[in-house]
UniProtKB/TrEMBL annotation:
<comment type="function">
    <text>This enzyme scavenges exogenous and endogenous cytidine and 2'-deoxycytidine for UMP synthesis.</text>
</comment>
<feature type="binding site">
    <location>
        <position position="55"/>
    </location>
    <ligand>
        <name>Zn(2+)</name>
    </ligand>
</feature>
<dbReference type="InterPro" id="IPR006262">
    <property type="entry name" value="Cyt_deam_tetra"/>
</dbReference>
<keyword id="KW-0862">Zinc</keyword>
<feature type="binding site">
    <location>
        <position position="91"/>
    </location>
    <ligand>
        <name>Zn(2+)</name>
    </ligand>
</feature>
<feature type="binding site">
    <location>
        <position position="88"/>
    </location>
    <ligand>
        <name>Zn(2+)</name>
    </ligand>
</feature>
<protein>
    <recommendedName>
        <fullName>Cytidine deaminase</fullName>
        <ecNumber>3.5.4.5</ecNumber>
    </recommendedName>
</protein>
<feature type="active site" description="Proton donor">
    <location>
        <position position="57"/>
    </location>
</feature>
<dbReference type="Pfam" id="PF00383">
    <property type="entry name" value="dCMP_cyt_deam_1"/>
</dbReference>
<feature type="domain" description="CMP/dCMP-type deaminase">
    <location>
        <begin position="3"/>
        <end position="129"/>
    </location>
</feature>
<keyword id="KW-0479">Metal-binding</keyword>
<dbReference type="GO" id="GO:0005829">
    <property type="term" value="C:cytosol"/>
</dbReference>
<dbReference type="GO" id="GO:0008270">
    <property type="term" value="F:zinc ion binding"/>
</dbReference>
<comment type="similarity">
    <text>Belongs to the cytidine and deoxycytidylate deaminase family.</text>
</comment>
<dbReference type="InterPro" id="IPR002125">
    <property type="entry name" value="CMP_dCMP_dom"/>
</dbReference>
<dbReference type="GO" id="GO:0004126">
    <property type="term" value="F:cytidine deaminase activity"/>
</dbReference>
<feature type="binding site">
    <location>
        <begin position="44"/>
        <end position="50"/>
    </location>
    <ligand>
        <name>substrate</name>
    </ligand>
</feature>
Length: 141
């Protein structure tokens, strides 16, 4: 099954329009493609206590997990930026939990896109395998 990049980016754009960002006015949308072919979206949700803000990428994944999905093939992120919008460091780390998925970064201003993988955005990452390796090492001692 190939990834329909256009459809995924369009879903992220629609999610961007539904984001909640009364403070920064910086709208971001994300659409995650599950292994089963479902597309789940999310937008950034700001909070007056800025630390409570959640990014669009995490919003989409949390929604997908709540709907029973934990295996993903791709995520598209859309923002009204001149260049394609990139996931922040927290989102990169959060996404690593679910494997080396395809990442499509899109600009709604220039319509530019960058396609890459999570491993390229966060090389040498700490993820689920890191914890398995630690557990295995502790058994050896």
């Amino acid at each position: 099954m190939t990834v329909d990049v256009n459809a995924l980016v369009n879903a992220a754009k629609r999610a961007m329009e539904r984001s909640y960002c009364p403070y920064s006015k910086f709208r971001v949308g994300a659409a995650v493609l599950t292994k089963d072919g479902a597309v789940i979206t999310g937008g950034n949700v700001e909070n007056a206590s800025y630390g409570g803000t959640i990014c669009a990428e995490r919003s989409a994944v949390v929604r997908a997990v709540a709907e029973g999905y934990t295996e993903f093939r791709a995520i598209a992120i859309a923002g009204a930026t001149a260049e394609p919008i990139s996931p922040c460091g927290i989102c990169r780390q959060f996404l690593v939990e679910f494997g080396n998925i395809q990442v499509i970064m899109a600009s709604t201003v220039s319509n530019k896109r960058i396609e890459t993988t999570l491993n390229k955005l966060l090389p040498q990452s700490f993820g689920p395998k890191s914890l398995t390796d630690i557990a295995d090492e502790q058994k050896i001692k």
